[in-house]
Amino acid sequence: MRLIRLLLCISIFFLFAKVSVAQSSAELKQQRERLTKEIELLNKSLQTTSTNKRLSIKQVNALIAQINLRERKISTINSEMRLIERQIQKNQEEIKKLEDQLVRLKKDYADMVRFAFRNKNGYNKMMFIFASKDFNQAFKRIKYLQQFSESRKKQAKEIEETQETLKKKIAELAANKKEKSDLIKAQEKEKQTLSAQKKDKDKVVSNFSSQEKEFKAELNKKQQEADRLTRAIQAAIRREIEEEKRREEEARRAAAAAKAKSEGKPVEVPPKSTEAEAPKKSASNLLSATPEAAKLSSEFMDNRGKLPWPVANGTITQGYGQHTYGRNVTVNNSGLNIRTNDGAAVRAVFNGVVLSVSQIMGTGYAVIIRHGKYFTVYSNLMSVSVKRGQSVSVKQEIGRASKDPIEGTSEVHFELWEGTSPINPTPWLAHN
Length: 432
Fold this sequence. Notes:
The protein is an alpha+beta fold. It folds into two domains: 2-206, Helix Hairpins, CATH 1.10.287; 214-249 and 288-428, Glucose Permease (Domain IIA) (Distorted Sandwich). It is 61% helix and 16% strand. It has helices at residues 2-49, 57-118, 122-130, 135-206, 208-262, 283-287, 291-302; strands at 314-318, 321-325, 329-333, 336-340, 345-347, 352-360, 364-371, 374-384, 391-392, 397-401, 410-418, 421-423. β6 (352-360) and β7 form a beta hairpin. α1 runs antiparallel to α2, α2 (57-118) runs antiparallel to α4 (135-206) and α3 (122-130) packs across α4.
């Protein structure tokens, strides 16, 4: 029985270990597939823009993003290989334990067979029973002979089951080794492609000196577009803050009037509150003043790292913050530029209320959605399907991505603001 329990415990341990590894391996495979799709999307857009001889900032961003994605894919393959190597090691250890177990089972079975052969005739068994001192001992000896026979059958079954388990583990080990071999080939192919792409990038960088003036002119234009969008966002948020101040003042006056009425005093219009009576509140506090706004702000914050992307399929071609091209060309991005499919649906990343819908020269339509003290901004839209004051739900379509008339690509610009300040949206979005 101890041998059976030991074998069962070993099998359960390795079963759970296998399930855990399989889940991790499946997640890594999904990640590799996502990265492959993003790379293919960039490949498609780069092929579209390759006919344009003049290098553009979008093309440079796509090249850099593609290299980053390729490096992440190679890293993912390395993680998959490490998991498989651990699985191979575990399978090898289990095979060794099963082989040792099989040797012990066969030895015990052989001993039992030899004992049974020496006592094979019924006379010896009967003498063994009749030699008992009393009925009690005779009964125990009969039970012993029965158990001995059953134990021999069980051991034979254990040997068969162990042999079958061993066969499966050897086949699993062979499959692991093949999978590792396939990953090594895939990794080598990715490394070769990455090397070629880095050479292309080096050529692009070497062209910066000859095209620096054109790049600066293009960036100046882009910066002007970004500044127009920023001013529109700031103006919309300022209006909302002023509206919150007005609502708060009205509520204060209504409360004062209600108090005077309940006390039987004449109702007078209270004067506008001074700073001493109403201390200055921050923009975030004003925007979270009502219970509804505070609840929405809290829910939005609780979903940090879990917000869906503003597009179903896309890859970031330029991240948040300052970016340098060559030595003298720099640009600051207040959000994310996300390359996506032509005319892709743009979606709200969380429940909220549309604060503003505007058309900005150079960036198409822009939609601002309020989520308590947070705001999300979606620009470079060719059309919108929402209006100011409308409530929207998470993943609801709010518009369609516009297409660059010169390069033929679609990029959505996405920003996240807390109060009156832009913040990096990347940590707030779920892994794509």
